[in-house]
Amino acid sequence: MSEKKISIGLFGFGCVGQGLYDVLNHSQGLQATIDKICVKNKGKQRKIDMSYFTYDKKDILKRKGLDVIVELIDNADEAFEIVKEAMSNGINVVTANKKMLAENFAELYKIQQENNVSLIYEGSVGGSIPILRNLEEYYDNELLSRFRGILNGTCNYILSRMELENKDYNEILKEAQANGFAESNPWLDVAGFDTLYKTCLMAVHSFGLILKPVQVLNLGIQNISYDDIVYAKEKGLRIKMLGTGYKSEDKFRVYAMPHFVNRQDDLYNVLYEYNAVEVEGAFSCKQTLVGKGAGSHPTGSAVLSDISALTYNYRYEYKKLNKIRKALNGDYNAENFLDNNFPIKVYIRFKSKDQLKGIEIISIEEEYKSERTNYIVATVNLKSLFSLKDNKESKVFVCAV
């Protein structure tokens, strides 16, 4: 590794920002220092000297001599403006903001090419699991047939505790919030949006697809009940929130939703806040990576790895994306490669049949009715499930079988 010493401008000093500061101070070999940290809250007590901090983003964006800007703030729109300006100024950027990346990927890709800079974001998918660089380096020329993964520690933590402690969703969610495993507003996690954004990023590096989050189905666990856990237990199954992508003929099927997994599945015993990513290639067969998917130090460690990569001028090459673009002479529209119109077998729990309006049911394999709850196991058209996407009023729970 190069002995080059790099100076860092840091945006955000929350959970991940503090984790980065900690792991950087315990790093052996990496010559890097945080020169300045931009934060919003002027009244908040910090654990390091206040001379490090500024409240004006220009103090970092206009600062001379910085080698890298690290963006670790919550607001995706503000993060995009910071990252865009930094790269336009010729500065390399490291980020862990999966929402910002997924929603603006096409433009961010273009800015990287135009300004000959690196944008690296290993910490945005899978926490401490080094999946994106593996896809870029190890699987760069291999035809990948499938990926799937537990990509959200909050969902996996809630699902694990519901099953193993025989408790209902709302009770576990409150405890998860109290223990720091869920946000005060957990919607992005439990409604499957966090998994969706990470799935979109996986699709870029696995298949060369730039997908807009609105194009990809995401259904979450926010409507789950203990009845669903009981159903899974009786069948010898567990429920996992998964991001999935696979090739079907000349198109790709990409979606994020709960799945039943059986005891033989590698993901069955991945519990609590742990994440796992499974990748299947035409020649390398199936491989699974497991690690802590969230938290201050695991994600901080992934961000530090990206900073370290910049010391030897690393950047994503996007070989699969560039290959597709070249074949199409730059006339690239990922929607031409995306298939949302296909049958999928699902378990659907609902209160009344009115809640199923809009769902195209092809056939029903199993049906149960009671005063307390109703469910069906049916083959439906995946495209019709978009009627439930981001629907906060829906009380329907859907799980792929």
Detailed description of the structure:
- Among the domains are: 6-127 and 296-327, 3-Layer(aba) Sandwich (Rossmann fold); 341-401, Alpha-Beta Plaits.
- It has helices at residues 15-25, 58-61, 76-88, 98-103, 105-115, 131-137, 153-165, 169-178, 187-190, 193-207, 226-234, 296-310, 319-327, and strands spanning 6-11, 32-38, 53-54, 68-71, 92-95, 119-120, 144-150, 217-218, 237-248, 251-262, 274-281, 285-292, 343-350, 361-369, 374-381, 397-400.
- It is an alpha/beta fold and 401 residues long.
- Helix 1 crosses helix 12 and helix 7 (153-165) packs across helix 8 (169-178).
- The mean pLDDT is 93.
- Strands 3-2-1-4-5-6 form a six-stranded parallel β-sheet, sandwiched between helices. Strands 8-10-9-7-11-12 form a six-stranded mixed β-sheet.
Question: Number of DSSP strands?
Answer: 16
Q: How far apart are the termini?
A: 47 Å
| Overall geometric form | globular
Sheet with most strands:
6 strands, parallel
Q: Give unreliable regions as ranges.
A: none
Strand content is 25-35%
Order of helices and strands: EHEEHEHEHHEHEHHHHEHEEEEHHEEEE
